[in-house]
Amino acid sequence: MGEADNAGVIVRPPVLYAAALVALLVLRWLWPLPILPRGGLWPGLALVALGVGILIWGRRTLLAGGTNVDPSLPATAVVTSGPYRLSRNPLYVGLALVYFGLTLALDSWWGIVLLVAVLIVMHRGVIQREERYLEQKFGDGYRQYRSTVRRYI
Asked: Is 37 helix (H, G, I), strand (E, B) or coil?
């Protein structure tokens, strides 16, 4: 490991999504650009609920597995149970669903544009860094897990 025992992510994911949501609200106010003719409130809220459920499940599973949720803190275990059987990054899938649901509920194409940028930052600046860190720290155990569970869904 280097100086710090963490993944060295460039931003905490909830902060990135919150910043994108603020930008969405400002852009929507300046130039609405609706997605759907009748709005997407109910489908959007359904996606928010699904995303929040995944976030709660993923967080509880990490804590039960004895590791940190915050990527700026050291990982102490590779958790492979709960939603981590289906995705290596269920918390990030959950955040994306919440954000996309809010985009539909707010009915603005700006949310889609911003989501593309957020997903690129998440992939390069968070997820790839976490994967390198976990492979260095846990070696074959993490490589085996990575070979059997998809990165996203």
From this structure: coil
Structure tokens at 121: 């930052």
- Pick from 36-40, 66-70, 76-80, 117-121: least confident: 36-40
Number of domains, the chain:
1
With a CB cutoff of 8 Å and minimum separation 6, the contacts of 53 are: 94
The pLDDT score that the predictor gives to residue 37 is 86
| Count of beta carbons in the 10 Å neighbourhood of residue 40 | 19
Cβ neighbours around 16 below 10 Å, total: 20
- 3 state SS of 150: coil
Q: What is the CA radius of gyration of the chain?
A: 17
In a domain, residue 90? The reply is yes
7 in a structural domain = no
User: Tokens 């609405």 sit at which residue?
Assistant: 32
Q: What is the pLDDT of residue 39?
A: 83
Is it the case that residue 3 has pLDDT exceeding 80? no
Q: Which residue has the tokens 């939603």?
A: 83
CB 89 within 8 A of CB 25: no
